[in-house]
Here is the input.
Amino acid sequence: MTVVEISSADDPALADYRDLTDVALRSRTEPERGLFIAESRFVVERAIEAGLEPRSFLCSEKWMASIEPFAARWPDAPVFVGSDAVLEEVTGFHVHRGALAAMRRPELRTVAEVIAGAKRVAVLEDLVNHTNVGAVFRSAAAMGVDAVLVSPRCADPLYRRSIRVSMGSVFQVPWARVDDWPAGLGELREAGFVVAALALADDAVPLDAFAADLPERLALMLGAEGDGLSRAAMEGADVVVRIPMAHGVDSLNVAAASAVAFWATRGA
Here is the structure.
């Protein structure tokens, strides 16, 4: 294990960890540089168990022991160790979850690869909140969803906050981007999927009624926070499904709605 003591936030070796709270910057540069950041010992462990390769680790002295079992397996990935103050200056936030790791971003899979053999997939259109994306992935993993597809403008599932909220589930559920949106939904239909849009509409089928007679292959499509699914995406669906609600509530947060829909259709 290669341990590197750091005393300055200006050290160029720390470039992977600099300005982690700048969402716009990181969302652009991380894919370009072929990396993502895993935050917390648990998430780092999940990433490594999924076969992903660390470029380096970053932690304070008190957390060294917690990452030694992983770092020892990757002698070419240095462990940068510094004070809490230096780590906060580098990352932009107080690092209190044990450790960070800069991981090599896996090659993005194709839609065909992730839906091969799948019975139930989730399709996310333009979810821009990384927390919601992570929560949807966690629900998908818990409820046995086979794959997740995301539209071109959807937030990056491998952004640090998405990974953290998902508790590493983004490494467990196969996912891909649908580059040609929403025309790419046709690939699902050609593969035998019924595309069900979760939305409020006069002709929407109640979720419990829909779940009583599920298709053999099902794609559940959820829309952006606030606006929901676009008109074009709705037109690409085979059926519109709504979650029945009480007390005048007309909608749920997309992450909550996904959990309800995934649970109700778990027999698919």
Q: What stands out?
A: Residues 140 and 262 are 7 Å apart (CA to CA). DSSP finds eleven helices and twelve strands in the chain. Residues 3-104 form a domain with the 60s Ribosomal Protein L30; Chain: A; fold (CATH 3.30.1330.30). The chain has a mean pLDDT of 94.
